[in-house]
Amino acid sequence: MSNFDFDKTVELVRNTLVSAGSTFREDKKNAYRRAIDRESNDKARWVLETILENAEAAEKNRSPLCDDTGIPHLVLEVGENQAVTGKLLDAIREGVKQGLRALPGRPMGIMGDDSHRIDQSGGLNPDSAGVEPAPILLRRCEDDVLRLHILMFGGGPAIRGKTYRVFHKHNTQVVLDEIVNWATEAVAQLGCSPCTLAVGVGRSHFEAASMMLQAQADGCYDVQSDMEKEITRRVNEANIGALGLHGDVSVLATFMKVGPQRASGVRIVCLRPTCCFEPRIATVEL
Amino acid sequence: MTEITTPITDEVINSLNVGDTVCISGYIFCGRDAVLPKVVKLAEEGRLNEINVDLQGGVIFHTAVSPAGVGPTSSNKLEIESSIEPLSKYGIKLHLGKGALHKETVDALNRYNSVYAVIPPVTALLGDKTLEQKVAAFPEEGMEALHILKVDRYPAIIAAAHGRSIYE
Structural domain tally of chain B? Predict the structure, then answer.
């Protein structure tokens, strides 16, 4: 941490948050191009083309991909000789604030006490930076760096997401079948398809949700496991299509992370049917 | 591509079918979860004149309006979908959002000769098509206040009309 520079860290985080909210990574652009090529429904294909055109405009303008600019979710990777100090966390927090103002983020932070924040009677904070980030997830990494992933989580996938137990009957297929069932129902209701399905499997609700977050940080549209391919293929067979207009592409890919498991007949599964823009992610080494 | 300009007449609605691609121009209302129940309440009490709002032939876009831009929120959220029937009754002709509606709502749209259209959530592109914006009522709701936009050729697909839905 001898090279820690507060202002430089703030600037890096600010710029990374703006990138997360305004940019498709190259593998996602390619996934959309492949989807456009194979979509047989003209209206669904028009939606896919429009989403890609929107992404190009947002990247060029450094402006939001979607008006629901999302809640910042952060994954901080820590290498062997790196230190996480309170000052570093302060710089990250300040960078998030500045990034939300620069994007600009939608001012949707709710003010007031616990009850006011639940029923939204405390009013809206007019400052984009009033949107607090979710708690930071920390993990070790092999490279000797501090690496920060910023993901922006919209509201639609949160409505349709689910974390629940699955009795696996000592058969992986049982869990996959349940994920496909959940995802098919969720994607049909989402409205903002095509999705990328984010799936975490853990021993507790917390762990499953953290696996779901890490799956998005690590996921790549060009590299899919057999389980990820199967989930994507089976949900696409439901013919939901972009915006639910029917079609061949309801899901672009599945990002799945399976954590350690306990000796038990139960697995905890977290599914987030991310929208057509998510994962909205950018990564920086601090 | 069918061009639609507000205020929308019954004749225009009669000519629309599920699956039609349309472009919407003119002045449109924007509202979502927080404000639509308030607008419904005023309409049912015959007090819309208090906020100087005329819903006849109008469009309601289910969106917030903020510095981040506009984009559809899920129209099947409880407070939004439950506004569709009463607002149709009081003059709204086109509800603009995203997501499947329940059959009861599709039937209610038909009863009042209104339609539902879905719009891709393309905030960066819609920004260039939004010419004016102002708060129409309930400014205390911030980005969720009732807004009026002047728009130029917002693209959409008719998703429910005349008792039919594209999600069937």
Answer: 1
The tokens describing A143, both together, are: 């490279």
Chain A and chain B share a number of CB contacts under 8 A equal to 120
Q: What is the DSSP letter of A246?
A: -
Whether A151 contacts A72, CB under 8 Å = yes
Report yes or no: A210 and A139 within 8 Å, Cβ to Cβ.
Answer: no
- Domain residue limits at B112: 2-161
Tell me the whole-structure pTM to 2 decimals: 0.93
Report ipTM for this prediction: 0.90
Residue B21 lies in a domain: yes
Residue B32 belongs to some domain of the structure: yes
What are the structural domain ranges in chain A? 6-285
Q: How many CB atoms within 10 Å of residue A165? A: 14
Mean pLDDT of B96-102: 95
Minimal CA–CA distance to A45: which of A249, A271, A239? A249
Helices (H), B25-154: 36-44, 78-89, 103-111, 123-129
Task: Choose the mutation target among B123, B133, B164 for the interface with A, i.e. most A CBs under 10 Å.
Answer: B123
Strands A71-78 and A146-153, how do they pair?
A: antiparallel
User: Are A147 and A141 in contact, with CB atoms under 8 Å apart?
Assistant: yes
